[in-house]
Amino acid sequence: MDLVGKVKDFVADKVADMPKPEATCTDVDLKDVSREGIEYLAKISIKNPYGVAIPISDIEYTLKSATRVIASGKVPDPGSLKASDTTMVDVHVKVPHSVLVSLIKDIAGDWDIDYEIEIKLIVDLPVIGNFTIPVNQKGEMKMPTWRDMFV
């Protein structure tokens, strides 16, 4: 193996052993009900092991119910991760009423939606470049009641 190959292997081993940011979805809740649809809020906790702030390049999300995509999108300009700390990031997911009508079979039984949310946090790590942190969570979201809509 030549010198360049050995250097590549060495660097690859060191990068693989470096600590990387970790993220978890702590909560998904009803945020707002409007004429356009229902807005849910996913709260993401991201732990930054580095002593410097790290910019978040992008946040992409996909909300599924019964394996069907009911909402997807990106969060523009999500900010940065605090140095050596945990940062909370809010991901607003808007679901149009027309999509909810198509899920009536799931909703009618227990007035909730069984969901799976997939979030990709893309951070810009020094030396490494863009690094994607996948966050997935499954659960149930309660549908708003008449009281929620008119309070």
TrEMBL record:
Transmembrane segments: none
GO CC, any one term: cytosol
One GO term (biological process): response to desiccation
Water stress and hypersensitive response domain location: 23-140
Pfam families on file: LEA_2 (PF03168)
Family named by the database record: Belongs to the LEA type 2 family.
Record-given protein name: Water stress and hypersensitive response domain-containing protein
Source organism of this protein record: Lithospermum erythrorhizon (Purple gromwell)
